[in-house]
Amino acid sequence: MAPLCRKFRNRLCSLVVVARLFIAFLVLTAADPIPEQVVTVSGDFEGWRSDLFPEILRDEAVTRLNELGKISDGDGFLQRTFLSPASVRASSVILGWMQDAGCRTWIDQMGNVHGRVESINSSASALLIGSHLDTVVDAGKFDGALGIVSAIAALKVLKTSGQLAKLQRPVEVVAFSDEEGVRFQSTFLGSAAIAGTLPVSALQISDKSGLTVEGVLKLNSIEITEESFLQLKYDPMTAWGYIEVHIEQGPVLETLGYPLGVVSGIAGQTRLRVTVRGTQGHAGTVPMSMRQDPMAAAAELIVLLENLCKHPDNFITYDKECRGFNTESLTGSIVCTVGEISCWPSASNVIPGEVTFTVDLRARDDMAREATLYELSSRIYQICDHRSVSCIIERKHDAGAVRCDQNLTLQLKSAAHDAVKRMAGDVLVDVPVLMSGAGHDAMAMSHLTRAGMLFVRCRGGVSHSPEEHVLDDDVWAAGLALVTFLETNLL
């Protein structure tokens, strides 16, 4: 086992503290499961108090989620990528909903859809609420869309109740044009532009057809210059905070029987593109011992990645300078995925000349992520050298782990508890606090202002799939929690 590069050693020592705290949380929640009937918010709506607004926060919100779920570039499946025809249609629909909620609306030069309500205090900084309108391929209809629809519904409730004109600070809902990174393999194009962390060079990133981000904007009649691009960045002094409602995309809330949870932090993420080049040849005439096959090499590299992330303690070793660090704590804190693989010329009777695959690597601690990437890169080059093929590793995306703002988290927790209590009566448990393994626009927005997130339970923890599902009553609970948050903190 190769020792870890010295520059990572000292920082890696702190990982054990994070891991132990996370394990303690899991043990605590698993040891005392919550009776589902205590916090289930379903049932006959007759007799509910009018201040719960089920007709807006549940019925209309669910209808709108279903409507967005039908706006797709795919035939028989849901797909909306950055400024695709379906995304443009979805943007137009969302604009109409924002206007219905009393918002002034516009679309910026990165395709983000904005709806803003001003406040009594014209100089007050704004609360930003958002999520993304783009999807993965063969997506579910709640990922991203739930956060947009719930935010608009909450503002409509304030408009209906006559409270919208009493806001003490502006509220701006943003439907971000790109979070998933499907089209350009560069996530957060929308939110990172607003946060000011997206470089101008991102305009020249190409999709698989050769179109650049700038080119796609021009096709949609959006002319962008370096100056106007830089103007997309919000002044941090104008932002009071950012909150996001999102499905959990995991099974914890369903296991606990609770509809809502608050997020303490988001795991960091790195995306790589690995290109392996060998010698193209005839499948029947080149002896096995003489081949420089990039496909076989790529297969070995992918298995290496899986083993490294499953058993990092078998690969990463430490010397006595890292006293007290338990390598076993890395296990379970890192996840790795190969989601795409392609080869050239891609014919059954040809030894390929080139194979490319992607790597998505995530960890709750940035040093654990960097340590894994260092070890992975080192071993990839060793394997490629041994197989007499060449390897190129490109880092396409990096997002550091994010800690959500403590005050916003407490305020969201209180709002979630009050919302569930108003719907279900006495609630005998506290709102769960979760760590997110998935990336969200809150990661980008945290560079602009403090950020907080509210998770909503989803069936089976399934996401990025047409099987993705959220109970109608949980959609209602999420919207009511946002209304409660706004009433408590902005009125």
Considering the chains and any ligands shown, give keywords for the structure.
491 residues; alpha+beta; 15 helices; 16 strands; globular; disordered N terminus
Topology:
Layout: H1 6-12, H2 15-31, H3 36-39, H4 54-68, H5 85-100, E1 104-107, E2 113-117, E3 126-132, H6 145-160, E4 171-176, H7 189-195, H8 213-219, H9 226-230, E5 239-247, H10 252-256, E6 260-266, E7 268-277, E8 281-282, H11 294-310, E9 334-337, E10 341-344, E11 350-351, E12 354-363, H12 366-386, E13 390-399, E14 402-403, H13 406-424, E15 433-436, H14 441-445, E16 451-456, H15 472-490
Parallel strand pairs: 3-4, 3-5, 5-16, 6-15
Antiparallel strand pairs: 1-2, 2-4, 6-14, 6-16, 7-12, 7-13, 8-11, 9-12, 10-12
Question: What would you say this structure looks like, in words?
Answer:
There is one protein chain. The protein is 37% helix and 19% strand. The chain has helices at 6-12, 15-31, 36-39, 54-68, 85-100, 145-160, 189-195, 213-219, 226-230, 252-256, 294-310, 366-386, 406-424, 441-445, 472-490, and strands at 104-107, 113-117, 126-132, 171-176, 239-247, 260-266, 268-277, 281-282, 334-337, 341-344, 350-351, 354-363, 390-399, 402-403, 433-436, 451-456. Helix 4 crosses helix 15, helix 11 (294-310) runs antiparallel to helix 12 (366-386) and helix 13 (406-424) crosses helix 15. The protein is globular and about 80 Å long. The N and C termini lie far apart (60 Å). The model is unreliable at 1-39, 41-48 and 319-326 (pLDDT under 50).
